[in-house]
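Q: Predict the assembly, please.
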Amino acid sequence: MDLIKKIAELNHYKSDLSGKDFLLTWEKSDDDLKVVLQVASILKEMRKENISPRIFDSGLAISNFRDKSTRTRFSFASAANLLGLAVQELDEEKSQISHGETVRETANMISFLSDFIGIRDDMFLGEGNKYMRQVGEALDEGFTKGVLPVRPGIVNLQCDMDHPTQSMADLLHLANEYGSLDALRGKKIVMSWAYSPSYGKPLSVPQGIIALMTRFGMNVELAYPEGYDLIPEIVEIARKNATQSGGSFKVSHSMTDAMRDADIVYPKSWAPFHIMQQRTQLLMNGDKNGLKELEQVCLANNAKYKDWEYNEQVRKVTRNSDALYMHCLPADISGESCIQGEVSKETFERYRIKTYQEAGFKPYIIAALMLTNRFQNPADILMKLIERNTPRVIK
Amino acid sequence: MDLIKKIAELNHYKSDLSGKDFLLTWEKSDDDLKVVLQVASILKEMRKENISPRIFDSGLAISNFRDKSTRTRFSFASAANLLGLAVQELDEEKSQISHGETVRETANMISFLSDFIGIRDDMFLGEGNKYMRQVGEALDEGFTKGVLPVRPGIVNLQCDMDHPTQSMADLLHLANEYGSLDALRGKKIVMSWAYSPSYGKPLSVPQGIIALMTRFGMNVELAYPEGYDLIPEIVEIARKNATQSGGSFKVSHSMTDAMRDADIVYPKSWAPFHIMQQRTQLLMNGDKNGLKELEQVCLANNAKYKDWEYNEQVRKVTRNSDALYMHCLPADISGESCIQGEVSKETFERYRIKTYQEAGFKPYIIAALMLTNRFQNPADILMKLIERNTPRVIK
Amino acid sequence: MDLIKKIAELNHYKSDLSGKDFLLTWEKSDDDLKVVLQVASILKEMRKENISPRIFDSGLAISNFRDKSTRTRFSFASAANLLGLAVQELDEEKSQISHGETVRETANMISFLSDFIGIRDDMFLGEGNKYMRQVGEALDEGFTKGVLPVRPGIVNLQCDMDHPTQSMADLLHLANEYGSLDALRGKKIVMSWAYSPSYGKPLSVPQGIIALMTRFGMNVELAYPEGYDLIPEIVEIARKNATQSGGSFKVSHSMTDAMRDADIVYPKSWAPFHIMQQRTQLLMNGDKNGLKELEQVCLANNAKYKDWEYNEQVRKVTRNSDALYMHCLPADISGESCIQGEVSKETFERYRIKTYQEAGFKPYIIAALMLTNRFQNPADILMKLIERNTPRVIK
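A: Predicted assembly structure:
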């Protein structure tokens, strides 16, 4: 069976993700990433073959969404359920957290019988990832000091720096489209800013994409209007990754020029780094007027770049006029979800189903992160599951 | 064992509900309906006998309540849980749906590992059922194009046209009260409007009742004050059903006259069809003043019919002064939940426990809809479950 | 194995908790309490040894939180999940309960396939416990009259009188700290009022503590500023318990004096009994101005007792300057969660991890309440689980 071959391949990698939180892709080795992709791929196939990968007889997966979410919320719920865990949401409004309770206390209080905590915290630059680490340290302490029977793993469901479950799902999608990770070598992928009528979109997706896609020999180009910079340290990481992997990394400032001969395009809006910094400051000061003013300034600035729309004209300059279009969804689609946005209706429609398939990898990426966090030897466990052969749906 | 006999009887019916959404009872054959009732009945007995009918080792059942719900919410959760699925609620406020995301996209995004989607959308005439079909088409596309590993079934948890899980539970209750479906032949059931101090109650229950109860040879009478019409096309369906089934269908305009010699009575308030049409228009236009005015007009109109209360006096004209009282609950009970309402306190109390029993069939109806949606041969699966004999609670 | 010995010990007790709600510790015999503690302890150890105590293949545990909760919410979810139940929340705002539906109706509507209902209702003096009993009577009726296949057990997750899952967890923590329940005999425990900048904290924790801790031969002292009385009937119960158990019970009015030579201290704020009575009245009358005034009066009164802070100075008068500090959490920590509060930062920090461990017993106490509510002979069931030896996490 193909599944068994895929499982055996896991042993070729030198990786141990067990007991370690998955917070930023650039903290993980290439082999770590390959193991996650392979495990995700195996779990997807097991599901198709009606083999249950349930590894937990009971246990909780806590979700803590500090920002809205549909895709990631359902992906997390699906992953937890697939492995046998029940999701319990930490709704900070229904809890006593507002009473000044410390992060380290809450982290322990929700974890007595929990196996994972998934966190989305992408609103404040410099805060989200920090918060996840605070939670992690609290869990370390609780586990070390006998408060917690196991150390729950943390899954980064989007922070201010990275959106690893998104970028890993995107990468698995690419590997599937091109046949393998190796086949991506030499491909040109353009992560481009695009116009949106909304404001304050997180930087984590473009940052996550450039930092991850530069690791597999691709030629990555980051395009945006002057001023729409990302966090400089992360751009630097992308640059280094490209050098190490034998690919390339380039920053430019014209969508159409960047898109020329692109194999893959990822046009998506984001807010400029320095605006997000100001916004964080204003939010923390509770300066509502300041925030309104900043929004107006920012929207007015965005409006100068309405021509940064991915459409039929731009598509024509890409490789064979048919670059693979990617998006984390929902996209701002001109004439559908807004008057003018990131992508024209016609162009989006050409690749719509592909974007759905792209999104479909996320539940398996999250499940793979959970499985590899829990077991030192994922291949062993997967083989046991294959041998156990419990059907997901009774036959 | 009685259970085995009941399961064997399933093979007498010519029905295949597998892979088809259950949106309106009048789209289903008599045998389809009989199979659902029989499976529901079997599942209820299995539960009593502590035999677990768990058919899923994992999987999600998505609930999308666009209106308030207690009974149906818990019934859906119970049914999903009984079969082994975890409920994940789609809370449109916590999601990014407000950002202009399309229905077809959301439908796919929540379905990567989902087996069922239960939807309540009963607020807008002409909208709820349409919405469910839109979701269904999106799921068809997603499944056909390889986005989804299975095509999740849709369960109509109340729309603008029908409330099939309610009417089917009501029918199973009647079959239990009278011993069988056949025993209902020739019985007189009155679906009557009743006064309520609230406004804008959906038409789906009375419509569902007249369209379903006319299919089994009952004499169905629909009574309401002039002007409180239901959707004409559905009244027409009831009329045709009655002719075909050898029963009768009649519309009249006096509660007391209608109730005379009734075996079964279902007094319940609803808003007039033409008011609901205006309301939908005003809601879509966001016309708040118009809505307030309409509410005043409607309440004033309702108030003319305060004497449409089911009470001891009216009960006395029914068969043996003891017609079986039905209600989908909660009822507006005079002197208990409101000053004056659909039913007097004394009369409701006589049949209160019966209405609870009536409601108790709903979880099993929903579970039966799920099971028959998933398996072409429910009898086979049920026999396997009996043979497996997993106890629901350890013994 | 140690587990088997512990299970065997259960047979020494004369107790039958099956089919009975656990609403107040003082309604239960000493043996009842000992069985709950022992079962909780066994379940905790089973979890550590990776033995799944799943007794339900399916079933719902309903939670009804009428007040905010983190710890208890997650404890209830953890306990339900550990035993195999899915949690379904009754969110009264998303339901039709506001429409005047009766408690007895709702209680039945949510219970068709439910095994437990956990209720927190601690806002109104004289109401919370009464509400739980109303629900219980409705469930009795539903079960007796064939509406419900099983009679769901009610778990008191905090009412106006008692907080039994908290006090039992606290007691199990003490038994663990001192080695056994017997070792607590003769120990001095001080339940002391402490200053808090917030107002209207429930009386249920101090009441639960004095009523429970007096049953095991401890010397219990209740200290509070004049006027901060608890419900007199419950104080009377504590007094009687102390006499019967061979311990002592004393009320006093100086924190420092009370703490002298204390083995265990529990400094925690609460509102005065007569204020809570007034508050209930004002809340029921919807008197918002009255409530604001009462809050001001109460806060001003609290402010007179800012010196009721547990800190290094007070700690020094306790036994060996090292009394075990307890709190139900979250504590109002001076200089951390508020300017001045119940405990100083330094002192809290000394015992912080201990308070986390204390909280960690609650999920197991709740699971033990569920298990003993369902089975007449818990030892039998636990032995079966040990023999079955299903791993919680695949090995």
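Chain C has a mean pLDDT of 95. The first helix of chain C runs from residue 2 to 9.
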